[in-house]
Design a protein that fits this description.
There is one protein chain. The chain has helices spanning 10-22, 41-44, 72-83, 91-121, 127-150, 161-170, 184-194, 197-208, 216-223, 227-234, and strands at residues 2-6, 26-30, 54-57, 67-70. By secondary structure, the protein is an alpha+beta fold.
Amino acid sequence: MIDLYYWPTPNGHKITLFLEEAGLDYTIVPVDIGKGDQFRPEFLAFSPNNRMPAIIDSEPADGGEPITVFESGAILVYLAEKTGRFLPADARGRKTVLEWLFWQVGGLGPMAGQNHHFGLYAPEKLPYAIERYVKETNRLYGVMDRRLAQFEFLGGSDYSIADMAAYPWVVPWKNQQQNLDDFPHLKRWFEAIGARAATARAYEHGERIKRQPFTEEEKARLFGQTAASVRGLAG
Protein backbone atom coordinates (compact mmCIF):
# COMPACT_ATOMS: atom_id res chain seq x y z
CA MET A 1 0.00 0.00 0.00
CA ILE A 2 1.19 3.48 -0.88
CA ASP A 3 0.11 6.65 0.89
CA LEU A 4 0.14 9.53 -1.57
CA TYR A 5 0.34 12.99 -0.08
CA TYR A 6 -1.44 14.94 -2.78
CA TRP A 7 -3.18 18.07 -3.94
CA PRO A 8 -4.62 18.49 -7.47
CA THR A 9 -1.78 20.45 -9.02
CA PRO A 10 0.21 19.40 -12.10
CA ASN A 11 2.86 17.77 -9.93
CA GLY A 12 0.21 15.95 -7.91
CA HIS A 13 -1.48 14.68 -11.06
CA LYS A 14 1.78 13.12 -12.25
CA ILE A 15 1.67 10.56 -9.48
CA THR A 16 -2.00 9.64 -9.74
CA LEU A 17 -1.41 9.11 -13.48
CA PHE A 18 1.25 6.52 -12.70
CA LEU A 19 -0.63 4.83 -9.88
CA GLU A 20 -3.78 4.47 -11.97
CA GLU A 21 -1.87 3.16 -14.97
CA ALA A 22 0.00 0.61 -12.85
CA GLY A 23 -3.05 -0.45 -10.84
CA LEU A 24 -1.25 -0.07 -7.52
CA ASP A 25 -3.18 0.11 -4.27
CA TYR A 26 -2.90 3.57 -2.79
CA THR A 27 -4.56 5.97 -0.42
CA ILE A 28 -4.68 9.70 -1.00
CA VAL A 29 -3.78 11.90 1.95
CA PRO A 30 -4.87 15.45 0.98
CA VAL A 31 -2.29 18.20 1.55
CA ASP A 32 -4.25 21.44 1.33
CA ILE A 33 -1.51 23.81 0.24
CA GLY A 34 -3.73 26.85 0.73
CA LYS A 35 -4.27 26.03 4.38
CA GLY A 36 -0.57 25.28 4.85
CA ASP A 37 -0.71 21.50 5.41
CA GLN A 38 2.69 21.25 3.72
CA PHE A 39 4.31 23.01 6.69
CA ARG A 40 3.14 20.54 9.32
CA PRO A 41 6.09 18.96 11.17
CA GLU A 42 4.86 15.44 10.46
CA PHE A 43 4.86 16.18 6.72
CA LEU A 44 8.22 17.97 6.76
CA ALA A 45 9.71 14.90 8.41
CA PHE A 46 9.67 13.12 5.03
CA SER A 47 9.12 15.99 2.58
CA PRO A 48 11.70 18.56 3.72
CA ASN A 49 11.11 20.94 0.80
CA ASN A 50 7.57 21.61 2.15
CA ARG A 51 6.08 20.62 -1.18
CA MET A 52 3.79 17.84 -2.26
CA PRO A 53 3.57 15.25 -3.71
CA ALA A 54 5.33 12.76 -1.51
CA ILE A 55 4.73 9.07 -0.88
CA ILE A 56 5.19 6.49 1.84
CA ASP A 57 5.51 2.96 0.49
CA SER A 58 4.70 0.54 3.30
CA GLU A 59 5.47 -2.48 1.11
CA PRO A 60 8.81 -1.72 -0.58
CA ALA A 61 10.37 -4.25 -2.92
CA ASP A 62 13.09 -5.15 -0.41
CA GLY A 63 10.55 -6.07 2.26
CA GLY A 64 12.11 -3.68 4.76
CA GLU A 65 10.87 -0.62 6.57
CA PRO A 66 8.54 1.79 4.75
CA ILE A 67 10.25 4.01 2.18
CA THR A 68 9.45 7.71 1.82
CA VAL A 69 10.05 9.63 -1.39
CA PHE A 70 9.60 13.34 -2.10
CA GLU A 71 9.88 15.29 -5.40
CA SER A 72 7.58 14.23 -8.23
CA GLY A 73 10.35 13.15 -10.61
CA ALA A 74 12.01 11.00 -7.97
CA ILE A 75 8.65 9.44 -7.10
CA LEU A 76 8.01 8.53 -10.74
CA VAL A 77 11.44 6.88 -11.04
CA TYR A 78 10.92 5.02 -7.75
CA LEU A 79 7.52 3.71 -8.79
CA ALA A 80 8.76 2.75 -12.26
CA GLU A 81 11.62 0.76 -10.73
CA LYS A 82 9.32 -0.81 -8.13
CA THR A 83 6.88 -2.05 -10.76
CA GLY A 84 9.19 -2.53 -13.73
CA ARG A 85 6.83 -0.41 -15.83
CA PHE A 86 6.95 2.83 -17.84
CA LEU A 87 10.76 3.04 -17.76
CA PRO A 88 12.72 0.93 -20.25
CA ALA A 89 15.14 -1.64 -18.88
CA ASP A 90 17.71 -1.20 -21.66
CA ALA A 91 20.33 1.50 -21.15
CA ARG A 92 19.50 3.55 -24.24
CA GLY A 93 15.75 3.53 -23.72
CA ARG A 94 16.13 4.34 -20.03
CA LYS A 95 18.52 7.16 -20.83
CA THR A 96 16.06 8.73 -23.27
CA VAL A 97 13.08 8.58 -20.92
CA LEU A 98 15.14 10.06 -18.09
CA GLU A 99 16.33 12.87 -20.36
CA TRP A 100 12.76 13.90 -21.06
CA LEU A 101 11.73 13.44 -17.45
CA PHE A 102 14.50 15.78 -16.31
CA TRP A 103 13.65 18.15 -19.15
CA GLN A 104 10.21 18.46 -17.64
CA VAL A 105 11.24 18.86 -14.00
CA GLY A 106 13.99 21.34 -14.91
CA GLY A 107 12.28 23.21 -17.73
CA LEU A 108 8.62 22.82 -18.60
CA GLY A 109 7.41 22.67 -15.00
CA PRO A 110 9.31 25.67 -13.61
CA MET A 111 8.72 27.85 -16.68
CA ALA A 112 5.01 27.05 -16.96
CA GLY A 113 4.74 27.49 -13.21
CA GLN A 114 6.13 31.01 -13.44
CA ASN A 115 3.78 31.60 -16.36
CA HIS A 116 0.86 30.67 -14.08
CA HIS A 117 2.17 32.81 -11.25
CA PHE A 118 2.66 36.06 -13.13
CA GLY A 119 -0.39 35.58 -15.35
CA LEU A 120 -2.87 34.41 -12.73
CA TYR A 121 -1.70 35.02 -9.17
CA ALA A 122 0.68 37.98 -8.99
CA PRO A 123 -0.96 41.00 -7.33
CA GLU A 124 0.60 43.26 -9.93
CA LYS A 125 0.54 42.42 -13.64
CA LEU A 126 4.11 42.84 -14.84
CA PRO A 127 4.16 42.83 -18.67
CA TYR A 128 7.84 41.92 -18.91
CA ALA A 129 7.48 38.91 -16.61
CA ILE A 130 4.30 37.71 -18.29
CA GLU A 131 5.82 38.00 -21.77
CA ARG A 132 9.04 36.32 -20.63
CA TYR A 133 7.32 33.19 -19.35
CA VAL A 134 4.62 33.00 -22.02
CA LYS A 135 7.36 33.03 -24.66
CA GLU A 136 9.48 30.47 -22.84
CA THR A 137 6.47 28.19 -22.41
CA ASN A 138 5.86 28.58 -26.13
CA ARG A 139 9.45 27.62 -26.89
CA LEU A 140 9.16 24.51 -24.74
CA TYR A 141 5.92 23.51 -26.45
CA GLY A 142 7.86 23.78 -29.69
CA VAL A 143 10.55 21.46 -28.32
CA MET A 144 7.88 18.86 -27.53
CA ASP A 145 6.20 19.31 -30.89
CA ARG A 146 9.46 18.64 -32.75
CA ARG A 147 10.12 15.55 -30.67
CA LEU A 148 6.58 14.25 -31.13
CA ALA A 149 6.82 14.76 -34.89
CA GLN A 150 9.33 11.90 -34.81
CA PHE A 151 7.99 9.65 -32.06
CA GLU A 152 4.62 8.68 -30.66
CA PHE A 153 5.69 9.55 -27.11
CA LEU A 154 8.44 11.64 -25.57
CA GLY A 155 10.56 8.60 -24.77
CA GLY A 156 9.98 6.90 -28.10
CA SER A 157 7.37 4.34 -29.08
CA ASP A 158 6.04 3.58 -25.59
CA TYR A 159 4.14 5.61 -23.00
CA SER A 160 6.45 6.36 -20.08
CA ILE A 161 7.01 8.39 -16.95
CA ALA A 162 8.31 11.21 -19.18
CA ASP A 163 4.83 11.59 -20.68
CA MET A 164 3.19 11.36 -17.26
CA ALA A 165 5.43 14.16 -16.04
CA ALA A 166 4.78 16.49 -18.98
CA TYR A 167 1.08 15.96 -19.64
CA PRO A 168 -0.29 17.72 -16.51
CA TRP A 169 1.74 20.82 -17.35
CA VAL A 170 0.07 21.02 -20.77
CA VAL A 171 -3.48 20.57 -19.42
CA PRO A 172 -3.71 24.30 -18.47
CA TRP A 173 -2.50 25.45 -21.90
CA LYS A 174 -5.15 28.16 -22.15
CA ASN A 175 -4.03 29.71 -18.85
CA GLN A 176 -0.50 29.63 -20.25
CA GLN A 177 -1.66 31.70 -23.24
CA GLN A 178 -0.82 28.93 -25.69
CA ASN A 179 -2.71 27.48 -28.65
CA LEU A 180 -2.43 23.74 -29.19
CA ASP A 181 -3.43 24.15 -32.83
CA ASP A 182 -0.01 25.73 -33.34
CA PHE A 183 1.60 22.44 -32.27
CA PRO A 184 -0.14 19.61 -34.17
CA HIS A 185 2.12 16.79 -32.98
CA LEU A 186 1.88 17.92 -29.38
CA LYS A 187 -1.89 18.17 -29.77
CA ARG A 188 -2.06 14.59 -31.10
CA TRP A 189 -0.04 13.35 -28.11
CA PHE A 190 -2.09 15.43 -25.65
CA GLU A 191 -5.39 14.11 -26.93
CA ALA A 192 -4.14 10.51 -26.92
CA ILE A 193 -3.08 10.70 -23.27
CA GLY A 194 -6.29 12.48 -22.32
CA ALA A 195 -8.28 9.61 -23.85
CA ARG A 196 -6.63 6.96 -21.66
CA ALA A 197 -8.94 5.47 -19.01
CA ALA A 198 -6.25 5.81 -16.33
CA THR A 199 -5.93 9.53 -17.09
CA ALA A 200 -9.64 10.04 -16.52
CA ARG A 201 -9.47 8.16 -13.21
CA ALA A 202 -6.44 10.16 -12.10
CA TYR A 203 -8.12 13.47 -12.72
CA GLU A 204 -11.32 12.37 -11.00
CA HIS A 205 -9.39 12.39 -7.72
CA GLY A 206 -8.65 16.06 -8.22
CA GLU A 207 -12.28 16.85 -8.96
CA ARG A 208 -13.39 15.21 -5.71
CA ILE A 209 -11.26 17.50 -3.58
CA LYS A 210 -11.45 20.60 -5.73
CA ARG A 211 -11.73 23.77 -3.67
CA GLN A 212 -12.43 27.46 -4.08
CA PRO A 213 -9.71 29.75 -5.49
CA PHE A 214 -7.00 30.81 -3.09
CA THR A 215 -7.80 33.71 -0.80
CA GLU A 216 -5.38 36.62 -0.50
CA GLU A 217 -4.18 35.21 2.82
CA GLU A 218 -3.53 31.83 1.21
CA LYS A 219 -1.69 33.43 -1.70
CA ALA A 220 0.56 35.23 0.77
CA ARG A 221 1.26 31.92 2.50
CA LEU A 222 2.03 30.18 -0.78
CA PHE A 223 4.02 32.83 -2.59
CA GLY A 224 5.76 34.78 0.17
CA GLN A 225 7.85 32.05 1.75
CA THR A 226 11.29 32.60 3.19
CA ALA A 227 13.41 30.36 5.38
CA ALA A 228 12.22 32.26 8.44
CA SER A 229 8.54 32.14 7.50
CA VAL A 230 8.68 28.41 6.80
CA ARG A 231 10.22 27.83 10.23
CA GLY A 232 7.40 29.84 11.78
CA LEU A 233 4.67 27.95 9.91
CA ALA A 234 6.22 24.62 10.82
CA GLY A 235 6.37 25.56 14.46
